Amino acid sequence: MKDIQNAILNMDNTVVDLETLQSLYDNGAQQDEMEKIEKHIKSSKGKDDAKPLDKPEQFLFQLSQIPNFSGRVFCILFQSTFVECISSILRKVEILQRMCTTLQSGQFVMQTYVLAFGNFMNGGNRSRGQADSFTLDILPKLKDVKSSDNSQSLLSYIVAYYLKNFDKDAGRETCVYPLPEPQDLFQASQIKFEDFQRDLRKLRKDLNGETGSHKSCLAETEMVNQ
């Protein structure tokens, strides 16, 4: 108990780990429980045959004797998770912002849009009128189309043309993927603005609570020192 008391009073989580502090905070005695414990202690005072508190109740009572126990533990826990919470929100915002910028103004994305819109404008059906500029199922067939002298395939020609005119670093470590990374796209698609609002509301609420607890702890400490 001495270690716990010193850790809480000194705001030190190196002696008692955060998991233990979280457990103490979550399982602390409720007000009605503390009233019963204190009532039992008062009624038992001076009686030889008084029944002592059980260990759990005794432990809860000792915790309650730590000045502003709940407020101090809340401050320690909030301080340990604040940076992580902010970083998590910022990562989501950065991914979403990057995807929006890429999809709105990325050169290769715009070219893909042009081809996709071209497919749509050539609309019809498979037997008539649907003259697609590209389809994914044609990609495996590119290697089967040969030049007149049979020296190269359509696939090798497209690759050579791409390297010459678009990306000389293709296939190297310095190559930049021309489209948004699939993983980034997936993460951006899973983001909900309602989640942002909920996380920010919780963070604001916890920050206000931490500020209030911090002021209470300072005021109580000053009173003790006086």
Fold blueprint:
Blueprint: H1 2-9, H2 18-26, H3 31-44, H4 55-64, H5 69-105, H6 107-121, H7 154-165, H8 182-190, H9 193-225
Quick take:
With 226 residues, this protein is mostly helical.
Main attributes of the structure:
mainly alpha; rod-shaped; single chain; 226 residues; 9 helices
Describe the structure.
By secondary structure, the protein is an all-alpha fold. Among the domains are: 1-66, no CATH class; 106-190, no CATH class. Helix content is 65%, strand content 0%. The protein has nine helices and no strands.
Mean pLDDT over all positions: 80
What value does the Rg take, in angstroms?
33 Å
Work out the number of β strands.
Answer: 0
The low-pLDDT segments are: none
As a percent range, the share of strand residues is under 5%
From the spread of the alpha carbons, the general shape counts as: rod-shaped
Order of helices and strands: HHHHHHHHH
Biggest sheet details = none
Helicity, as a percent range: 55-70%
Structural class: mainly alpha
Count of alpha and pi helical runs: 9
Separation of the first and last Cα atoms = 26 Å
